[in-house]
Write a sequence for this structure.
């Protein structure tokens, strides 16, 4: 699992939270991140090209805080999720 952690984290965020959103731009605005970060998450989740986005903890915290989710809760959800 650790060898694919970037993919797993990005796939979870993209499939669970970004994809159902009305647009990547609105997700970025609502979660206090740049739209380019959302594209990196999407490209890693979809295994597009050589993209392997190593999401910074600071970015992960911004996303989680915007969703009223503790970082520990995020990892608990991630642990129980299958891509």
């Amino acid at each position: 699992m650790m060898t694919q952690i970037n993919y797993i984290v990005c796939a979870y965020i993209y499939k669970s939270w970004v994809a159902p959103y009305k647009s990547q731009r609105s997700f970025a605005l609502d979660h206090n991140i740049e739209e380019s970060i959302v594209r990196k998450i999407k490209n890693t989740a979809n295994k597009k090209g050589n993209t392997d986005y190593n999401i910074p903890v600071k970015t992960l915290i911004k996303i989680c805080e915007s969703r009223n989710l503790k970082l520990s809760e995020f990892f608990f959800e991630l642990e129980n999720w299958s891509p």
